[in-house]
Amino acid sequence: MASQEFSGKSVLVTGAGKGIGRAIALMLAARGAKVVALSRSEADLRALETEIGSRSIAVDLADPVATRDAATAAMPVDYLVNCAGTTTLEAFIDVTVEAFDHLIAVNTRAPLIVSQEYARSRIARGLDGAIVNVSSASATTGFADHAAYCASKGALDAMSRVMANELGRHGIRVNCVNPAITMTDMARKAWSDPKKAGPILARMPLGRFIEPEEVAEVVLFLLSDRAATVNGISMPVDTGFGIN
Q1: Which residue is catalytic, options 9, 153, 189, 195?
Q2: Is residue 175 part of a domain?
């Protein structure tokens, strides 16, 4: 049923070059979508172009002017996935203003800017739409050494609820997905030590971490007409991590 459900649709995916964003881009293309891929890495974008024929836009999302220019250039698209994100690990008392500002810029401000341009484009055309913001379990869990990251994702969830309220009145649905630790290449390195991974796995009732494709499946559901009345949620994708 879902094999070509995005046939004829275009989707802008930020952070499409790596990890969860790349899994989302690949799955969308496999189900018929034309992907507009936004990433900082030219090499990642070229590789994605070769694999799925995506359209590429290279941009550093920490730059608000360049971000708005890139978002404008990407339009029009039918759907938007804000997946780009970054992190810096610092103990709370050592968090620098520079690191905090950078994480807010990429993880919260960039989705604001890109979503503004998407919404303006859809509203001007009298069209409905859907946005999925890839947040994190960190939006509601106080992980040590993640003060700036948790703040940025908590802000993203709060902003998304306002977006869902205001943009929903124009037929544009907005939802978050909130994965716990997801086994991207970077995460595999970070969590390969059983001593480090053990305490976290003990909080996960299914006893394992999440794969990028499992997050992508939820993202595609929330974009699709199958979720036509789902608006303003933060969907855990965490094997039950949040219930402990």
Answers
A1: 153
A2: yes
Concerning whether 34 is annotated as a catalytic residue, the answer is no
CATH code of residue 78 = 3.40.50.720
Q: Which regions of the chain are under pLDDT 50?
A: 1
Question: Is the previous residue joined to 64 through a cis bond, with omega within 30 degrees of 0?
Answer: no
pLDDT tens-place string over residues 59-88: 999 999 999 999 999 999 999 999 999 998
- Token pair belonging to 238: 């965490």
Q: Give exposure, 25-61, as e/b (b: 16+ Cβ within 10 Å).
A: bbbbbebebbbbbbbbeeebbeebeeebebbbbbbeb
Q: Which of 79, 118, 149, 196 is catalytic?
A: 149
Q: Which residues contact 69 (CB under 8 A, 6 or more apart)?
A: 59
Enter the pTM of the model.
0.96
With contact defined as beta carbons under 8 Å apart, do 82 and 132 qualify? yes
Does 79 participate in catalysis according to the annotation? no
Question: Could you tell me if residue 131 is inside a domain?
Answer: yes
Is 202 a member of any domain? no
105: containing domain:
10-185+212-231
